[in-house]
Amino acid sequence: MKCAENIVLIGFMGAGKSTVGRELAKRTGRFFLDADALIESAAGREVASIFKQEGEEAFRALEKESARWMAECVRGSVISTGGGMPTVVKRLKDIGIVVYLKLPFRKIVERIDAKERAGRPLFADMNRAEELFEKRERIYEEQAQITVDADGPVERILEDILKALGSLR
Questions:
Q1: Is the pLDDT of residue 159 over 80?
Q2: Which of 41, 78, 131, 161 sits at 20 to 30 Å (Cα–Cα) from 26?
Q3: Beta-strand (E) ranges in 44-137?
Q4: Which residue(s) pair with 134 in the sheet?
Q5: Is 124 a residue whose pLDDT tops 80?
Q6: To the nearest 10°, the Cα dihedral for 8, 139, 16, 95?
Q7: What's the confidence (pLDDT) of residue 3?
């Protein structure tokens, strides 16, 4: 794996993309980039505000725009995508090596407390969230070059990712 290659983490909300991403960046000497934070910075407001004021379609357009920018300009980073980015950006591998952090829906619900769920627009309705999870799971699997079981300690997840990345060489 060349130093300039990005590692792109995908998975449903609450799968651990940000937590694992920060640690993976430290471990591999890369920068960490959160795609939602990038969008918030460019838009000058939070994701929830974009959803509320302009709707999901406007947010997805911003995801596509940020993905184009990352593919062209970002190197040597670990990138945590938003849970829906793989549904609108069909070739995440143009940005880097795509790693799916796979976690069952019931485990995601256990990880996310009510306060955090309140800040995630697509988690407002638990039935809809589970339907969305089931729909997206197939897309994550199709996009992934590496799939890692994200149910466990961060250290074990990191080791699994690093081992899988090593086998891609």
A1: yes
A2: 41
A3: 77-80, 97-102
A4: none
A5: no
A6: 10
A7: 53
Beta-carbon contacts of residue 125 (< 8 Å; ≥ 6 apart): none
On whether the CB atoms of residues 139 and 87 are closer than 8 A, the answer is yes
Q: Are strands 7-10 and 97-102 parallel, antiparallel or unpaired?
A: parallel
- Which residue type sits at 125? D
* Rg of the chain over all Cα atoms, to the nearest angstrom: 15
* Residue with token string 């909300």: 13
Distance CA 140, CA 10 (A): 7
65 Cβ partners below 8 Å, 6+ apart?
none
Encoded amino acid at 80, one letter: S
Three-state DSSP class for residue 8: strand
- Are 13 and 123 contacting, i.e. CB atoms less than 8 angstroms apart? yes
